[in-house]
């Protein structure tokens, strides 16, 4: 007689992070009264809070990742020579290997790359089409004399649309722009791998391939914002049939091959606290960028980074493309999002790659957009549980450079951004419970009035008061 094999009735096992905790940072616990005082002193702007007064910091995933022992070991191998650091060549080799671009210019972070790119490519009167704006990208384009034109599909502006690739470019919108202004007035097409302002939504490989074909027909470059291109590769793997059995590294390499260069904030996918790069395939453009980098960032073999930071980023790139890593990274975001959906809380769907986006228009329908409902919701979430989130709505959208009027985006969102390898599932549970509590008491909330507005990128430093 043989033992029968028993199969568990459980269809799906719980998953766990593919790492263990080696170092911990104690968190400060505050009272509600202390938090009410802190947010008022910060002008109801979560960017102006002191980090020591924050319990769970979901402001951004930029530079907030926990580095691995492999990366920390690399930090001890920093070659801090002013010129020709060996760490630069390690970084260059890994960018070429995993992203596939020929020429690399290091920068202190992503916006350094955006600045250099805008100066070498954009002339006054140019138009830059893209799959939804990003704050710093659009500002650099405008400061160079260009005008950003949104050519993303309409579904991207609908928080409730279930389109699997809401980051896709509308080919008809792009064609119409080319016919209207002429290809010679379009220095490049700006493509983001996962669209931040749409809720971390991906662009499909099929769509990018079609955009590439259209761009080649008209002789227009494509520049990728590769900040979260690894996360985009994961969605391609999960949602496009042809890529189901391909490794993330393979998908990423093909994805980048349909573009002519990229700007990169290594503070996201590459798992470091500082650093970025500009990558190009055109040698003449690379020469221009390499000249400008000396003026704005540093020598072309360090670009505003220490050798140890370049080594950490080189190693972070290796870790970022591992399938187990990216599955767990996005799995944690999905875990939080599914809890909120199960409880009937309005968020952007499908769940994105790096954050959960609360839909402030549906969350706080009593607050009109000109009274900054997303800003108010972010402030209230901090008061409720010490959780710091970020507004992504009318404040972030800013003003028209022509008229000075506020932009009124369709999406009025609060971003709960999950740092990589930092928080546990228990932190996600607490976050979900805090959001639910605020939602339960939402009717008592009123709007805000802006009392200080800086000239550029106002969401970083604006101040508000309660109405």
What is the topological layout?
Blueprint: H1 32-41, E1 56-57, H2 69-75, H3 86-98, E2 103-107, H4 110-121, E3 127-130, H5 135-143, E4 147-150, H6 171-181, E5 188-192, H7 205-218, E6 221-225, H8 229-239, H9 248-257, E7 261-265, E8 276-280, H10 283-296, H11 307-320, H12 323-342, E9 355-359, H13 360-363, H14 373-385, E10 387-388, E11 390-392, H15 394-397, E12 413-417, H16 425-440, E13 448-452, E14 463-466
Parallel strand pairs: 1-10, 3-4, 5-6, 6-7
Antiparallel strand pairs: 2-8, 7-8, 9-12, 11-12, 13-14
Helix pairs in contact: 1-14, 2-11, 3-11, 4-5, 4-10, 8-9, 12-16, 14-16
Cofactor: pyridoxal 5'-phosphate
Keywords: Lyase, Pyridoxal phosphate
InterPro entries: ArAA_b-elim_lyase/Thr_aldolase, Beta-eliminating_lyase, PyrdxlP-dep_Trfase, PyrdxlP-dep_Trfase_major, PyrdxlP-dep_Trfase_small, Tryptophanase_CS, Tyr_phenol_ly
Structure description:
The chain is built from 16 helices and 14 strands. By secondary structure, it is an alpha/beta fold. The chain has two domains: 32-61 and 323-466, Aspartate Aminotransferase, domain 1, CATH 3.90.1150; 69-320, 3-Layer(aba) Sandwich (Aspartate Aminotransferase, domain 2). Strand 5 (188-192), helix 7 and strand 6 (221-225) form a beta-alpha-beta unit. The longest helix has 20 residues, at 323-342. The mean pLDDT is 96.
